[in-house]
């Protein structure tokens, strides 16, 4: 079953091809043969649906599941997702005890977090699995090199925790050759060496995201954490398209044309009349808007395959709908408008929308809202090649 053979019942839908996701996981594993793979399924698997994507990734050999927030990780456990799991975005008073009881590795970037996890582990009567995060140069979360010895020694002194991982995150992996990459890898080596010398024996050391997995073998260490590439989207145009990277887009977003009508020349279209018909024409109404995550910034530029041609959003993208100029072509209400997909049938890709909206593919798929039902295809891995 492909994206194009089934007509979507209802206003719109995001078809999620789990066979493509599994194939992408296998491709990424082949790129990082010496490392385990963590499937990053934060933000509802970048809009694709965390539970089915986590399950599919595991079927394709992902050893770990990663989320940003503890609530995301706990929801996966509640849905029956087992195996090694980690979450990294903690705030004071977070659900440490629930995470420890659910056997989730928790990231610790500072001594405040260590204190909270120690207390929670004591309360639970369990040993917490913690991964110490180093800020090797991203300047975001993570422990600064100057504070690292204190954190390492405090973790070693706490019998309530086991340090299972040492990890960090890259700032510019999507710009191969950027000087910060080598600098961060060098700081990471130093910080992990310090921790290991002090007595920590981590199960995993990791720093690579998708672009590093694809382009930087020296960053793979024991584990790579892949998000965007797993969903079949290139991390950056400079690295090539998904197709060039051997990846297959997982999400196909389509809608049912809501109206097709004749209008005279000189007719303004949508708020602000930023598009005016040049001649008598037909307009098609696509019932998706910025409330569904279609970027308003792509007004006048966002591409959509409808009536056998790729057309651009005519005028403003509104909250629930936008218009395309069908230029007299015959399109009926109920015909399918495909905003993006793998590109097999001439439809645009999420990467095309990223360009049109002056953003990144990550944002295009992640923002597709909850009003758009996700429909899963190729759920069964038995048919995989
Ligand atoms: C800490 C961390 N690791 C890994 C990833 C996955 O990154 P990517 O989607 O580029 O593979 C992210 C996502 O931004 C992240 O925040």
From TrEMBL:
Enzymatic reactions: L-alanine = D-alanine
SMART domains with a match to the protein in the record: Ala_racemase_C
Catalytic residues identified in the record: 42 (proton acceptor), 271 (proton acceptor)
Endpoints of the signal sequence: none
Lineage top rank: taxon: Bacteria
The species this protein was found in: Streptomyces violascens
Reported function: Catalyzes the interconversion of L-alanine and D-alanine. May also act on other amino acids.
This protein's name: Alanine racemase
Cited PANTHER family: ALANINE RACEMASE, ALANINE RACEMASE, CATABOLIC-RELATED
PROSITE patterns cross-referenced by the UniProt entry: ALANINE_RACEMASE
EC number: 5.1.1.1
UniProt-listed Gene3D superfamilies: Alanine racemase, Lyase, Ornithine Decarboxylase, Chain A, domain 1
HAMAP family per UniProt: Ala_racemase
Known pathway: Amino-acid biosynthesis; D-alanine biosynthesis; D-alanine from L-alanine: step 1/1
One protein family per Pfam: Ala_racemase_C
Sequence ranges assigned to domain Alanine racemase C-terminal in this UniProt record: 250-377
Cofactor(s), names only, from the UniProt record: pyridoxal 5'-phosphate
Residues at which substrate binds: 140, 319
PTM sites of type N6-(pyridoxal phosphate)lysine: 42
Keywords carried by this UniProt record: Isomerase, Pyridoxal phosphate
Family classification: Belongs to the alanine racemase family.
């Amino acid at each position: 079953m492909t994206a194009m053979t089934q007509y979507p019942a209802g206003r719109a839908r995001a078809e999620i091809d789990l066979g493509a996701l599994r194939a992408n996981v296998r491709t990424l594993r082949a790129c990082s043969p010496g490392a385990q793979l963590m499937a990053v399924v934060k933000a509802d698997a970048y809009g694709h649906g965390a539970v089915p994507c986590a399950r599919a990734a595991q079927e394709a050999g992902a050893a770990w599941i990663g989320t940003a927030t503890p609530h995301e990780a706990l929801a996966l456990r509640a849905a029956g997702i087992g195996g090694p799991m980690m979450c990294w975005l903690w705030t004071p008073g977070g659900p440490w005890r629930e995470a420890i009881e659910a056997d989730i590795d928790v990231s610790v970037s500072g001594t405040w977090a260590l204190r909270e996890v120690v207390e929670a582990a004591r309360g639970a009567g369990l040993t917490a699995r913690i991964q110490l995060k180093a800020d090797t140069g991203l300047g975001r979360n993570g422990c600064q090199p100057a504070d690292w010895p204190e954190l390492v020694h405090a973790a070693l002194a706490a019998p309530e925790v086991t340090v299972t991982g040492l990890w960090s995150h890259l700032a510019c992996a999507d710009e191969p050759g950027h000087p910060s990459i080598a600098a961060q890898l060098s700081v990471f080596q130093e910080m992990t060496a310090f921790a290991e010398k002090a007595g920590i024996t981590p199960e995993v050391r990791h720093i690579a995201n998708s672009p590093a997995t694809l382009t930087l073998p020296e960053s793979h260490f024991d584990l790579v954490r892949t998000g965007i590439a797993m969903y079949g989207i290139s991390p950056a145009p400079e690295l090539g398209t998904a197709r060039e990277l051997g990846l297959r887009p997982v999400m196909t977003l389509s809608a049912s044309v809501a109206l097709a009508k004749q209008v005279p020349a000189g007719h303004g279209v949508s708020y602000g009349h930023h598009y005016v018909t040049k001649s008598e024409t037909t307009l098609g109404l696509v019932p998706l808007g910025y409330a569904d995550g279609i970027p308003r910034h792509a007004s006048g530029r966002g591409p959509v395959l409808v009536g056998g041609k790729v057309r651009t959003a005519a005028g403003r993208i509104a909250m629930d709908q936008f218009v395309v100029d069908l230029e007299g072509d015959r399109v009926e209400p109920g015909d399918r408008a495909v905003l993006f997909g793998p590109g097999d049938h001439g439809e645009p890709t999420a990467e095309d929308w990223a360009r049109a909206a002056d953003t990144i593919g990550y944002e295009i798929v992640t923002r597709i809202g909850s009003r758009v039902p996700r429909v899963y295809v190729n759920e069964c891995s038995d048919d995989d090649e």
